[in-house]
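Worked example 2:
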Amino acid sequence: MKIVFFGDSITDCGRDRADEKSLGIGYVKILADKLRPIYPDMDIELINKGVSGDEVSDLLARVDTDVIAQKPDAVVMMIGINNTIHKFKNGKELDLVQFEKDLTELLTRLKNAGIVVIFLEPFLLPAPDKLRMRKLFNKELEIINKVTLKLCDEVVAYDEMFVGLAQSIPYTEYSLDGVHPTHRGSRLIADTAIKAIRKHLL
């Protein structure tokens, strides 16, 4: 079974782009190290196609070459946080109507190619400099939830999970900057994503 991981820096996480087998040091690598021992007799190929800084439109632009051309059985995707981040850090406007169109087309292309789509919801933890981003991010999440629940085979709700945990545990346990997960945060992503993936192992 072939699974492509598709997304931004949270997926990328230091992978060597010159090495197709490089999984980086984040949740993809942790997940791989957990998944393979569970199915020692199964040929499972995992490919990391995360690119730091990507938005939904960037994934749409490279989905044919980086995912569909690989002919995977499944794609595991986390994307969306940079659409909000770039508005506040770079002044790039977030057109929510276009965002919905791009996300819908991206997921539709994958489904039309016969690929199982497992969507990992982006998240934003309450770091002081990220609090001002929450209102816009919530609007983005509404669109993500509407589109992914309609088009994806599995959706894992990380924002609700992480924000809930941060009510009783310092958010820095899971992300120092509110966006990029710590090792503990990456382990949590891997542990929950693997449950969704296992439902679709051939």
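The two ends are 7 Å apart (CA to CA). The chain has eight helices and five strands.
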